[in-house]
Fold:
Amino acid sequence: MSARQPPVDPPAGSPAARSAAGVADAVTAHERWSGRFAEPVSDIVKRYTASVGFDRRLADADIDGSLAHARMLASTGILAAADLAAIERGLAQIRQEIADGRFTWSLDQEDVHLNIEKRLTALVGDAGKRLHTARSRNDQVATDVRLWLRGAIDEIARRLVALRRALIDLAEAHAATIMPGFTHLQVAQPVTFGHHLLAYEAMLARDGERLADCRKRVNRLPLGAAALAGTSFPIDRAQVAQALGFDAVIGNSLDAVSDRDFAIEFAAAAALVMIHLSRFAEELVLWSSPRFGFVGLADRFCTGSSIMPQKKNPDVPELVRGKSGRVVGHLVALLALMKAQPLAYNKDNQEDKEPLFDTVDTLSDTLAIMADLVATGITVRADRMRAAAREGFATATDLADYLVRRGAPFRDAHEAVARAVRHAETKGVDLADLALAELRQFSPLVGDDVHAVLTLEGSVAARDHEGGTAPARVRAAAAAARAALPPG
Ligand code: ARG
Structure:
């Protein structure tokens, strides 16, 4: 999904543009401050500097911010009650026009703020022109982006919880399903599939904490900072903050209009979610390949090949992996955007929106699609997992631990088992397939109870402590993870 939507706009300055905008007095944004300017901007500069093609997504937040501002102006006596009533009526109509797709966005009005203000003035006259009293687009845009992002974070948090719930459900169903655990992508020790899934749930739980923490700093009010220094009007910033649901007012006006650290923080938290999901996606790609065959993916998450009839490609996990790179790129773009900007507002900051919007869109879609995939799109092939766990001498550590319990120093036990593994490998069998007498050749401490520790079930059941892979522990961990989910 692209954040960029070209504005519907007839040739600039044409009669069609003026009437389509529904504007009685169709001056352009540039002409608004034309008292200061001797010539109009060229078309390419107009396109280069305009943001309405993408920042119109902020329209609802912009209207909410304007309403809170106007109400405060009225209650502090800066704006007449009749003007407030006209502004409220006009903004309600504009909100409806935008929702219905009837609003004409114009490149001539540069950005979402000027488009809405222009239309308001056309609808309600001078009251519309009074709305911008004690305000600047600098504190206006910072407020809009924060409001918009707060809503986006809340939606993302909900989707994150849905994915976590799906992971917990699947983990509970597979608390005792055995698979090989890997280090260095080599078979290491048996684990349960449920335990493996809960590792991802744990990563996403921390991501949820990070997003909630970031939201606290997003949810502070810049409005009232005006252009950079504050305003000479007797405004009430606390009232605006309360009306808009902000937790606090940003104290320093220069800081309020200029910093985008809240967006950078969000992008960093979002990038981490995507990185976590890319790891899971990579495993799904591996596991669904016929070589592993640990899982099957529902057809709706895969596509075929245009040339190879037998292919079923795991497109969705591959794209999750690929799109994580794009979100990391947005984080880097936002950091680079902010770097070395002098105080206070600079137009550079208009460039914050596309990376931010695309981060939100990509992350939201990824979470929704992964929740669906985990909830109903994965077929678990327990037999294949088990067979793979039997192939890599996954219980070698269990044999070493057994020898230690019988008195061998761990390093000696490690060496004895290494030699037993080499022997089994030459014979092409697993450790569990070696006879008691054969095992005894490697250590006299081997007793006739040894085969119990060499089974996969014995191995996982033995790891019976908090954080371990024993099925009972996995069930308890799943229950704890479920209890930790926010209600809803
Ligand atoms: N469209 C601008 C932005 O996104 C709004 C603020 C412009 N302020 C200004 N003084 N040029 O940042």
Summary: DSSP finds 22 helices and six strands in the chain. The pocket of arginine is lined by residues 51, 55, 111, 137-138, 141, 347, 349-350 (CB under 6 Å). The beta strands are 178-183, 186-192, 220-221, 248-249, 295-297, 378-380.
